[in-house]
């Protein structure tokens, strides 16, 4: 099929349709192409080595190496670590690695399939969905070093609290999927987006309570004098996610106060889940709106 005919075959699916119709089409595309998504997930895992021993071992070693670097920096250089700091930071580092890998892979999910898109008419939405779904496999492997690390802090860990992990992970998956859909479409038209995303993710990590707690931010003199900064910090999606993961894995420590693992803030998680669903809906609508132009641009 030629580039022009491939674009024309899908044009009627988005031009002139309402946002609700586009969203319905996007959901239908995903549900009707489950086998294709599964195949693409397997292909993406093979490309990244996630279905090989070495690929999976890297998911075990990489967060441990990053944790060591940050631990040395904060404990030795900054000299202001939270108690049991390795567990404290790993509870944030692992979900962040999951999100960053999904966004980075989704950036090229469409543009790397340019030949396929020009030759075959198929719902392109399955490409970012497969990239986001493949990231779940890496996250699951990352739970192995987390479990090993928790063995060193048995006095702090409460295994029953870990049943909350899948709930928090579902919220993060929806947010990650929405981000993947959006950046995969945007990168087709703005090819420098990949470089910008790399810098943006790095900045976002340091602005998020990954190396430090949200409570530590609120206790700073600057934030106490400017409460709006604390409010904005609380609205950061990864402030909600990091605090939720830490609540069930690490607990809470602030000065002389220390609390073991406990259920996450359900209200904040539900609010983020609802916002992520809206974000996903908008991302799908925008994706379907520009999808017919992919074959032309690529």
Radius of gyration, rounded?
Answer: 21 Å
Structural class: mainly alpha
Fraction in helix: over 70%
- The helix count comes to 15
Which of globular, elongated, flat, extended, rod-shaped describes the shape? globular
Largest sheet: 2 strands, antiparallel
Distance between the termini: 15 Å
Contiguous low-pLDDT stretches (5 residues minimum) are 1-13
The arrangement of helices and strands along the chain is HHHHHHHHHHHHHEEHH
| Overall pLDDT | 81
The fraction of residues assigned to DSSP E strands is under 5%
Tell me the count of domains: 1
What is the number of beta strands?
2
Strand line-up across the major sheet? 1-2
Overview in brief:
This protein is an all-alpha fold and 298 residues long. The protein contains 15 helices and two strands.
Task: Tag the structure with descriptive keywords.
single chain; 298 residues; mainly alpha; two-stranded antiparallel ribbon; 15 helices; 2 strands; globular; disordered N terminus
Plain-language structure description:
By secondary structure, this protein is an all-alpha fold. It has one domain (3-297). It contains 15 helices and 2 strands. It has helices at 3-11, 19-32, 34-48, 53-78, 85-107, 114-119, 126-150, 165-189, 193-207, 214-218, 221-225, 227-235, 237-249, 266-290, 294-297, and strands spanning 252-254, 257-259. Strands 1-2 form a two-stranded antiparallel sheet. Helix 3 (34-48) packs across helix 7 (126-150) and helix 5 runs antiparallel to helix 7 (126-150). The longest helix has 26 residues, at 53-78.
């Amino acid at each position: 099929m030629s580039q022009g005919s491939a674009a024309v075959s899908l044009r009627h699916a988005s031009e002139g349709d309402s946002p609700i119709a586009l969203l319905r089409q996007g959901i239908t595309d995903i549900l009707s192409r489950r086998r294709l998504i599964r195949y693409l997930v397997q292909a993406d895992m093979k490309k990244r080595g996630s279905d090989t021993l070495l690929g999976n071992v890297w998911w075990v070693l990489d967060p441990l190496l990053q944790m060591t670097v940050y631990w040395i920096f904060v404990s030795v250089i900054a000299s202001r670590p939270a108690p049991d700091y390795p567990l404290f930071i790993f509870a944030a580092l692992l979900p962040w690695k999951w999100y960053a890998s999904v966004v980075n892979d989704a950036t090229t999910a469409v543009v790397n399939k340019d030949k396929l898109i020009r030759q075959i008419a198929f719902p392109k939405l399955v490409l970012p969905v497969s990239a986001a779904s493949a990231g779940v496999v890496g996250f699951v492997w990352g739970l192995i070093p987390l479990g090993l690390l928790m063995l060193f802090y048995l006095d702090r860990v409460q295994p029953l609290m870990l049943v909350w992990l899948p709930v928090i992970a579902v919220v993060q998956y929806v947010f990650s999927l929405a981000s993947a859909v959006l950046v995969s479409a945007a990168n087709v038209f703005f090819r420098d987006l990949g470089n910008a995303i790399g810098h943006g993710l790095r900045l976002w990590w340091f602005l998020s309570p990954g190396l430090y707690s949200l409570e530590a931010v609120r206790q700073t003199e600057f934030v106490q004098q400017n409460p709006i900064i604390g409010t904005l910090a609380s609205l950061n999606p990864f402030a909600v996610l990091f605090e939720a993961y830490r609540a069930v894995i690490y607990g809470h420590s602030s000065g002389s106060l220390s609390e073991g693992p406990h259920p996450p803030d359900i209200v904040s998680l539900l609010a983020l889940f609802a916002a992520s669903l809206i974000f996903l809906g908008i991302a799908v609508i925008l994706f379907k709106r520009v999808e017919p132009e992919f074959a032309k641009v690529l």
